[in-house]
Fold:
Amino acid sequence: MKNDKSFPVQYSTLSSCALQEKILIKYPLNGLILCEYLFRGLNDNYLVEDSTSKYIFKVYRYNWRNMEEIEAEIELLQYLKANGVSVSIPVPDRDNNLIQKIYAPEGVRYAVLFSYAKGESPLARITSEQSHITGRELAKIHSLTINKRLKNRECYLDIRSLLDKSFLSIEPFIDDRHDDLKNLNEIINNLKLKFESISLNDLDFGICHGDFHPANYHISDSNEITIYDFDSCCCCYFVYDIASFYFSIIRFYKDTEIIMKDFLEGYQEIRGLNKSEISLIPYFGAVSFIWMVATQCSNFEIFSHFVRNNIKRNTVVNLKKFIDDHCN
Structure:
């Protein structure tokens, strides 16, 4: 339990050894268990290994996701896996519990052991075949979740309100940069006008990954894909997921047009896209980037380096360039 006399903690890093001895021992793992801290994002991630397998142990940040939200994420993953989508899934402990409750210094945190995604992220390089496979797998998700909603989770992603909330999150960190503030305000207002000029009801809607890009899936040597990190899963227009991928390849790769062509061909082998959806991909791509920046600003304690430096250096400039180049 939390010691009331201890100094207040904003974000603790749980001991790998303590997790190994007190939490991971609950699982039916084989032989010697090793636990290694990997990285901190919106949550903490640990690599877990036994004599035969690897796993990822995710410790959700205090007050980031409640029990009902994590249960909704798990339910989605189990549903997708049962219907043939290659996703990382939660592993039960000996008592068939999927979620662990940990009393950290800052309060109760939840944790889940996930199956390991074989291979590695294609961030360094992505082939045409891999891009094609990526599109197919995302389309499988959308074909299974169309018109569905997550249970026990307020997760509807309203585009217009998202833009307004994002501006409020970003504004305090660039309020001393007149040009950045003016450009961001102009970009957001123009995006809102764009979405007001079309019928959003014509776009297919359902449960989305919410943060779909090459850092959130692995591809093995035999081109088997495994998608993970559904922490941002939400109810939104499917084009939002496609646009998140599009914006990321603009940032990470040179052969953007070829990669996107292969991706969309793979996607449309499973489910079609109408002309309106395809034409809106760049606009939703800009929205996905604004949401990402706003998330980093609203989680300043984690992304302080980015917020203090990069956002003031080139973030809004790069966003404006993307808008000018891709949103006609």
Notes: The chain has a mean pLDDT of 92. The CA atoms of residues 230 and 276 lie 27 Å apart.
